[in-house]
Amino acid sequence: MKGKIMSNVDSAGAAAQQAIFDKLGINTNKTAEQRASSDKLGQDDFLQLMTAQLQNQDPFAPMENGDFIAQMAQFSTVSGIEEINKNLSALSADMRQARIATASTLLGHSVLVPGGLARPDSNGEIHGVFELPQAASATRVSYSDAATGELLHNEDLGPQGTGLVGFSWTDIPAALRDAQRKIKVDIEANTGKGMESIGPSVYAKVLSASSFGDESTTATLDVQDYGTISANSIDRIR
User: Rounded distance, CA 75 to CA 77, Å?
Assistant: First the structure.
């Protein structure tokens, strides 16, 4: 008799609990596949746990309202973080596409890269810069055939102050322009120790733009004679 009464009480309790779940819109009839496919505590699971906790707490020592509020706040925080992560992932994907689109606008243009190899641009000219650590009493730029070493042209730039100094060869012979020969640029400067070599930077043509790896990967540029270069390292364009 006692067992039958307990069974009825349990059934009534289960029915009351299910009624609460139904009012809250909690799905308690997940299939085994649905449960197996999820390894995270969802909103329905959280509400089921909290409802069961309310029904089974000690009536003489019930939990404080603050405890329940803290639990709900923790769950809200976790849900909020998951939503932020989703939004950040979507934003990263958008930024990746934007980086590629921006880099693609550089196709056909020339970017300034460290190095001494150059080719005549679409105007048949070579442009570049070099940086002096201190003032120089004399500076000279020389252009030679990169394959044979033949001197093609040189120019004295005279005294120059500290910092960046620009140089250019604008009257390149037609034969060199048309052949698109690879030209080696050498810079020399006298900063008090005689003429010394200084590494130049030259403008080189962008051939393509791409991006590899995950969403955080920076777009890269394929630059003529210099290969793959990060788009973030480019600060001057022609």
Answer: 5
Tokens of 31: 């299939």
Q: How many residues does the chain have?
A: 238
In the three-class reduction of DSSP (H, G, I as helix; E, B as strand; rest coil), residue 29 is classed as coil
Phi and psi at residue 16, to the nearest 5°: -65, -40
Between CA 89 and CA 98 the distance in angstroms is 14
Question: Do the bridges between strand 200-210 and strand 220-223 make them parallel or antiparallel, or are there none, so unpaired?
Answer: antiparallel
Secondary element (H or E) of residue 189: strand 183-190
Cβ-proximal residues to 107 (8 Å cutoff; 6+ apart), any chain: 206, 207, 208, 209
What angle do helix axes 2-24 and 43-56 make, rounded to 10 degrees?
A: 140
Give phi and psi for 154, each to the nearest 5: -145, 160
| Segment 201-225, tens digit of pLDDT | 999 999 887 765 454 456 788 999 9
Q: Give the C-alpha separation, 110 to 108, whole Å.
A: 7
In angstroms, the CA 16 to CA 52 distance is 11
Domains delineated in the chain: 2-103 (no CATH), 110-233 (2.60.40.4070)
Bigger pLDDT: 207 vs 18: 207
Distance CA 221, CA 179 (A): 24
Q: Provide the 3-class DSSP secondary structure of residue 221.
A: strand
